[in-house]
Specification:
Layout lengths: L1 E5 L5 E6 L2 H4 L5 H15 L58 H17 L3 E4 L9 H11 L4 E4 L6 H7 L5 E4 L6 H6 L2 E5 H21 L1
Parallel strand pairs: 1-3, 3-6, 4-5, 4-6
Antiparallel strand pairs: 1-2
Helix pairs in contact: 2-3, 3-7, 4-5
Length: about 220
Amino acid sequence: MKREAITLDGQPAGEVELSEAVFGVEPRADILHRVVRWQLAKRQAGTHHAKTRSEMNYSTKKIVRQKGSGGARHGSKGAPIFRHGGGYKVPVPRSHAHDLQKKVRALGLKMALSSKMRDDAIVVIDEARLDAPKTKALIAKLKDRGWKRALVIDGPEVDANFLLASRNIEGIDILPSQGANVYDILKRDTLVLTRAGAAALEARLNGESQTGEAAS
């Protein structure tokens, strides 16, 4: 499929041929949900922690005598039933990450790209480069293009000036092709691909598909 390319200034920059196998896949909500859930689970720190009974710093002396008090036979002030006592089944540090097959992750990325293509929310630009890291100048260019919530995906490396100029602009993110992921693509209204970024994504996803077929 062909797509018109433009420059950052909005000038025509020829056409780009995009792979049907990467940008023409029928999106499935269940696959996208699985990949996004996998991504967000990996991001969770898992550092939540509360003390259990054994971790409470109280005296080990028996708090009341065994018999004759008229109450229960308590032996520890750190028991969960007491105020300031340890918890029962409390959260402990752990990893929330879970496995997801590589071919499902690759398919999810294809579907995210195809979803943006279907919604006509993909813009191809010649390159994402600036002569100087000037945020004000970049804001003016983005305003002219109408990009308010956009993700820019470049080639293997991101231009340092563009990265510095864009990092203080709310709603604008830039990633190298290897960092492209389903969550960030779906989160933004517009997906901006450079020529190098589109080529790198196709090489990455077509390569992963061939690897999966060979393995099977």
